[in-house]
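Notes, p. 3: input format for complexes.
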Amino acid sequence: MDPQDAWLATLGQLQLQMNKGTYETWLHGTEVLAFHENRFTIGVRNAYAKDWLEQRLRPTIERALTDILDQPVEVGFTLWAPAALNEANDDPSQPSDPPARTNGTHGPSRSNGHAGDPEPTRAETQLNRRYRFETFVVGSSNRLAHAAALAVSEHPGRAYNPLFLYGGVGLGKTHLLQAIGNACQDQSLSVLYVTSEEFTNDLIHAIRTHTQQELRDKYRTIDVLLVDDVQFIAGKESTQEEFFHTFNALHGNDRQIVMTSDRPPRAMVTLEERLRSRFEWGMLADIQPPDFEMRLAILQAKAKQRSVEVPPEAMNLIAERVQTNIRELEGTLTRLVAYAQLTGQPITVEMVEGALADVAPRHHNLTPEKVVKTVAAHFGIDVERLTGRSRTRSVALPRQIAMFIARQETEASLPQIGQVLGGRDHTTVMHGCDKIATLVEQDELLRRQIVSIKEQLYQGLYG
Ligand code: ADP
Ligand code: MG
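Output follows (463 residues plus adenosine-5'-diphosphate):
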């Protein structure tokens, strides 16, 4: 296979493995510049992408290429954009996403469970200095988790032990976990940060090389153990066994343990009971998707960190559209800034529209009828009743939720939505949407309900 084709095939495969934003930002537009003695030289568009690919995606890319070519290959990245473009990207006001590595090692050291992240082949785990409490925006959706994390960092081993943080993808679990790590390191405590996969890999390695004692020394002599994405140990028997003993040794000595997971312990179905109960010994804190104000606050904080000017309308638009995931929120801003710098244009609302068309396509095949059905099912009401005349709150509120979601997620106009909801007037629909929009900002439970209804909607579409 010719190197160019192999690279295209690899890109195709990577596109399937990672989310669209990651792929578009880092891999789109890359090309094979040279292939010599099993070494690919890949041209990338800017210095920022080069760093990121080198530090975080190289093993994943090498593995994909090796599979496709059926022979071992190495990959190097080099800038190939015209000089004028590179200059824009060597600007110190660049987004600071690639973790500043302090020990000069290469290859990824972290894997935070994100689809775009490579598997761990860590030499020595580093905490990302960017993940600190000072850079973490606090709002109603993460207040508890933040407060617990802060308390733990102030009194490690004494406040809540273990601390178990859980929540959906891209909501700041790794950020908080590492903020604890950084704060503890600042107090000269010894901190070990691992993903649960890294823990498993260490264990496998120790078993293979008969170095279990070293493994124990490594994990049981520290002050603070941070385990990211602990959900992956569920179902792995020997990992659970070893982790159980690690946990006991540390906890028994009042060493702090903090874990993150995408779900609470009780929802980790294949987790051993004795671990589940231990995970619940200390404090459980969840992180929910942020509300609009908080999304806006996060965007503002990120823009400020990067010293970029983004007009308020543009910020509002991003905060409105990118709803569930802070990583996407950040990714959209990063892409926008990169684009503005590359083209030398100021950021405009049109530019945001363009960038968003990529991330959050409207769901053209989502109809208001489908929304009505899903909402009715969610609340256990008949569609007839939902679209009927009843004004009792248990029906009227779901009806307004249906209006709100249909307005947000479908292309239908207000009169069309009113039609589907039993021939109601467009002003009624508008009123309903406004009411829910206001309530959503105040009512955490409602916000969760809406997120879960949307999940059901999309499952129906793609599943
Ligand atoms: P998770 O581990 O929950 O998947 P991360 O901690 O990796 O999510 O967060 C994804 C991105 O969003 C990171 O760049 C992180 O810094 C950022 N982020 C998440 N929550 C916040 C917040 N409250 N304030 C500022 N940045 C945040
Ligand atoms: Mg994470």
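The first helix runs from residue 3 to 17.
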